[in-house]
Amino acid sequence: MIRGTNPVLKTALAVLLLTPLGAAANVNINVMNYSFSPNNVTINPGDTVTWNWVGGVHTITSGVASNCTGAGTLFDENSDVSHQMFVFTFTNAGVFDYFCRVHEHMGMKGVVRVKGLTFNGTPSAGNLVNFTVSNLPPTDENLKAIVLLSITGMFPGISFGPCIPVVPVALDQVTLLGLSVSSAFTTGPITSGMASTPSFLFPSAPPGLTVFAAAIVINLSTGGFGSVLPSTQFTTQ
Length: 237
Hints:
Helices cover 5% and strands 40% of the residues. The chain is mostly beta strands.
């Protein structure tokens, strides 16, 4: 049961219910010496990535690096003359790094970014707006996500540790639409893979500003981390 009459949440749910599901897409990545091409792709939940062998002896291994806990947990496949294609469907949102065990010291790495952060509302003064995170895995259930904002771009971002994907939002104390960039919006507990930040009135701002946002799931009790969501952007009106 959904309690209350939050118009932003009602609008978001209506869009979800009325929008037909689109066909899943496929993205092709070539595996060659000594790189993945392209090595940075952004997709939607339910889309598929196909790695195609071009040459050499490699692996396609999930994770940031071989010395990080959990490396190869999601997938760990050979890519060579005997293993010329690997197909994987990404059902959950998040930032999924991967690398080649044989050539990681040469920088043979890539990342698949699966969208899961949505800005709800119209970004102009006085409108009620918020953020929603969605399509999160069961491991994030009952945790909360922190949404970060920036108008200065997506690099260098924030690193929470060498084995955790960088959250691609720069924080620099610049004022963003009347809100401090160094502030963060926290969602409620994640339920069935979804949660929202509290709604707030969009402050006065000149039109045409490009705003970036990204999110990371955090266990506030233990300090542990869950999913990292790729950045999204919108323009003030």
